[in-house]
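Support request, priority: normal
Reporter: lab tech (M.K.)
Component: structure prediction queue

Hi team, I submitted a job for DUF429 domain-containing protein from Emcibacter nanhaiensis yesterday, and the status page still shows it as pending. I've pasted the exact input below so you can check whether something in the sequence is tripping the parser. The sequence length should be 292 residues. Please let me know if I need to resubmit or if it's stuck on your end.
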Amino acid sequence: MHEDTTYTAVDWTGARGKRHSGIAVAELSAGASTPREVKAGAGRWSRQAVADWILALAEQQQPTLIGFDFSFGLPHVDCGDYFPGLDYSFGTAADFWDFVEEKTAGEPDFYAGPLVKEPGLEQYFHRPGFRGECYEKRLRRCEQENLTQGFGWSESCFHLIGPSQVGLASFSGMRMLRYLKRKNPEVAIWPWDPFNPHGVTVIEIYARVFRIMGGQGSLKIRDRQALNAVLENLGSGPVGRELANKDITDHLTDALVTAAGLKKIAGDPGLWAPETATPEALRYEGWTFGIR
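Reply from support: The job had stalled in the queue. We restarted it manually and it finished. Here are the results:
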């Protein structure tokens, strides 16, 4: 890992709207001892503002590793298809991103809600008030390994009910990834691209992995004392004075902990070539960084 790398984490959301309390951004800059919150220019982040900020970072050619907490692809290994029984064909995960964009392009700020109500596709999802006939709680290969390797259960992208749902966030995130790649092809999106030592590399993360590494277990962090204990276990210093009088949300603590955790583990070459990942999984599903 490049010694000048900045480690950044984004706690993401798939909610409707433009300015989101559910988005938090944190970074651990090269030479810094502790992560800090990156604040939005307009009070709260929009998804578009996050994307534009990343593109500005890419122009600076500063090595930056950015982790997002959404799924970069859908399950494919288990059934050999994203939507078994439908006549859609996708050669890669990026092809599916194009499909998501096609079905949701009229929605602002990368919102992707219409996708899960698309005739035919809706039968694969369980959302409030509706359970599709083809719905199953399918998981990607990395999500299955996440459980096997001791990091707990991952929610299926097809299950759109409750606070742990990740489907809508993932589909909006796929729109954002597509946008980044089209605006600047030099933005690396792992595992399809290798780490870019002269710019931005985007990876998928699971915040619980870093909470567990920091000794917190699966519990969310909502106070400075618990946050600083986890940061210390990850080799980072305590949060600064700017958070002394701030209500700390679990969105922000997840971002801060992930930024610190990425610095701790990103130099491990085994994580960049996970031994449990099959070629099909990497091509169609993507992978969660930190799962071996």
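The CA atoms of residues 204 and 288 lie 5 Å apart. Strands lie at 6-11, 24-28, 36-37, 64-68, 126-127, 130-131, 188-189, 200-204. Let us know if anything else looks off. Ticket resolved.
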